[in-house]
Every structure is written in structure tokens, then in C-alpha cells.
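WARN retry 2 of 3 for item q-0093 after timeout on previous attempt; input resubmitted unchanged.
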Amino acid sequence: MAEGTARRLIDLREDRAWSIRRLASEAGVAPKTIMRIENGQDIRPASVARIATALGVEPMTIHEYREQRERAQKGRDLAN
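OK item q-0093 returned
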């Protein structure tokens, strides 16, 4: 997985104030799986789907989340 995807997963997890252990528990995967993704390693698509479900997002959102978050922040900055 790309570094951007790893960062997006971290952002999604931290936005919920969830630990790696909490996300793993909610997703039904091992904490090591979450750590692998957050370290940029490839994992099975089925694991990504379980993690996305636990986070309440579509799997593609994990790939796109950072860009959406940055656009929203820029919009808030421009409004101020």
C-alpha cells in the first residue's frame, strides 16, 4: 500500500480517537494487521474491507480520505 493510504488510515483512526488495538478489535483483525497497513505494507483486500466497515466508510475512502480532509481544511481556511 502507498504511504498516502497508510497516512489516511492513521487519520481515520485518530479522528475517532481509537487506538490500533481498538480498531483491530472493531474490525475483527489482529493489531499487527493495522500496524502493517500504517507502515505501508500490503495486506489482503478483505482486511481493508473489514477495517473500512469498522470505521463506517467505504474501502475506497481509506485511499481518498486524506485528500478530502485537506480540501475541507482549505475551505475552512479560505472562509476565515
